[in-house]
Amino acid sequence: MKRYDFDLLVIGGGSGGVRAARMAAQRGVRVALAEAQGLDGLGGTCVNLGCIPKKLYSYAAHYAEAFQESRGYGWEGEAPSLNWNTLKSRRAQEIRRLNGVYANLLRGSGVTLLEGYAGLVDPHTIQLASLNADGSAGHQRYSAERLLIATGGQPFLPHFAGSEHVISSDQVFDLEPFPQRLLVVGGGYIACEFASIFNGLGAQVTQLYRGEQILRGFDDEIRHFTAAEMKKAGVDLRLQAGVLAITREADGLHVTLEDGNRLLVDAALYATGRVPKVDGMGLDAVGVAQGADGRILVDAHYRTNVPSIYALGDVTSRVQLTPAALGEAMQLVDHLYGPAAGKAARTMSYELIPTAVFSHPNIGTVGLTEAEARARHGEVRVFRSEFRALRHTLSGSEERTLMKLVVDAASDRVVGLHMVGAEAGEIVQGFAVAMKAGATKAVFDATLGIHPTAAEEFVTMREPVATRKAD
Fold this sequence. Notes:
Blueprint: E1 6-11, H1 15-26, E2 31-35, H2 44-48, H3 51-70, H4 84-109, E3 112-115, E4 117-122, E5 125-131, E6 137-149, E7 153-155, E8 181-185, H5 189-201, E9 204-209, H6 220-233, E10 236-239, E11 243-249, E12 252-257, E13 262-265, E14 267-270, E15 274-276, H7 283-286, E16 309-311, H8 322-337, E17 355-357, E18 363-367, H9 370-377, E19 380-387, H10 392-395, E20 401-408, E21 414-420, H11 424-436, H12 441-446, E22 466-468
């Protein structure tokens, strides 16, 4: 008789949880996956409320400027107008399709799907709370040799006078009606992306950030350049500014700012960070160690202090990116159950993780900021190119592109690569491979560019703009 119902029980159907469940099942492991939102929640934040719908709305926002720019190329006539309900409906249809794809992949791999909210009972057991067909609450217990927590994160909303009137990124995709006047509070990538998206879709957007500049943690030059481009595009970006209170009146939300000024908006989006989604899971009762912000603490193999319980992805707050969760899942499964036949065990490196911000214009970055490179390597050489993209010589747009390389002077290795401009994420992905392979500036210089493209600038920058040493 088997001691447990399953060998591995995964809590959470996001990117990391689904990948771990599928890979383990393919090794012949008896796997179950519990998702609180049922089949509609498969794919997690990325599919349902993050990366995918956000990128679709970013595409939609670009069409307005594309129609305007087309006049410079001889296109005439009235530009079409946005049907907000059509966009929402089409997005929802695509998300449902992806939910179904995830469900089929899991079932095809032999994973048992459990629909309901999973709480820990002991180091090997969960209690699944769900709704029965008659609407009553159902409770079922399942046991496993190992439990994997991959519940992800959720938006953090601060408490202040009128905070009940604000929304998070979870609600922004289905706002009704379309907000003609939108307030965005925050300076991270989510805030910048939605400020750009709704500005492009036609809203009057005001973005507030308490800090001295948006996108903390990114290269300083990239931060300042992006802020200037966003303002140029029409976002009313106000730094060192915050909200004191919000009240709802007949004509909209009245926002009182800390400096005494007031705003009238239709909706207020708070993008002020994310926190691990662990409320009510029973971590305390089982003794799972957590950080001050609720994150689950794990070792190099994603094991918690409770030997049978593991955690990965955003719930550990290491790197809150979908590809990082996927990489962690693959390393964990190889560690626990061995690699696939003929394959070496995978490892997850947190160095040189490329990332993109789908603001307008886009940001793509991989490696160290200039400040980080100076602190780590001492002397660095900085190469920089700023220009108006060829497309805009006729489009009439004043948008500019910035590209930047940071090179370790001692080894000649390219240790930081940053871009602000159209398709930055698509361009930087390829260069991330080269940097992972240890490419030097000499290798970049020896590589022929594809002409005429923006990407070729990365292999044609010959003279450093500065050689800088650690402060």
